């Protein structure tokens, strides 16, 4: 990754973030609830949507993770920068790219979804995140903030742990993809699951004023959770201590 050009890094982050929003939100919008001729739901439901989000990250982490690090998420980029896994100079360009890519994916989904007669992005919610009356089960602002902070923090712990020098090599995308699947199984009933500001912003543009008025939470809470993990991972896992001990052992 260190030898990748800036253009290659940006291109990889664009592709990965676009695929995450298109695949994950697309599964929710186009296949989450589908009625057959007897008006019986045959959609993929929460489990299917959760798997879709996990699979987008798993596949693109394998495809372009070696180019950019495979963040696809502003909260992940900030958390990794706090943990000294990426230089801060990359943070602005990564975040701008991720938001643009998520919005582009949202726009493509909007065009596709409007190909169905009677579709309304505002009425359907368009896979946007929300609290209160926009939460799938009307969870409070506090409940939604807590779940987003906790889920994002643990997502970063998995990312930091799976990519730690001490971890088994080559398995990080699998662990990260499965973690995101689990996160969605917990979070969809509460907030529709964000843990990713680019994912939230990308569809909020098309879901009406209500979604845009609440999207602030799904920027602030994931970043707060990522920051918690970024600051605490090395302290919890003794990563720096291990490096010091190895240095002493190698230089008695």
UniProtKB/TrEMBL annotation:
Q: Which domain of life is it from?
A: Bacteria
Q: Name one GO cellular component term.
A: membrane
Alphabetically list the UniProt keywords: Cell inner membrane, Cell membrane, Membrane, Repeat, Transmembrane, Transmembrane helix, Transport
Q: Which residues cross the membrane?
A: 12-35, 41-64, 94-113, 139-159, 171-190
Coiled coil where? none
Which Pfam families does the entry mention?
MIP (PF00230)
Keyword ATP-binding on entry: no
- Cellular location(s): Membrane
Q: Which Gene3D superfamilies match?
A: Glycerol uptake facilitator protein
Which GO molecular function, any one, fits this protein according to its record?
A: channel activity
The membrane topology noted for this protein in its Swiss-Prot or TrEMBL record is: Multi-pass membrane protein
Give the similarity note: Belongs to the MIP/aquaporin (TC 1.A.8) family.
Q: Under which name does UniProt file this protein?
A: Aquaporin Z
What is the organism of origin for this protein?
Answer: Microlunatus endophyticus
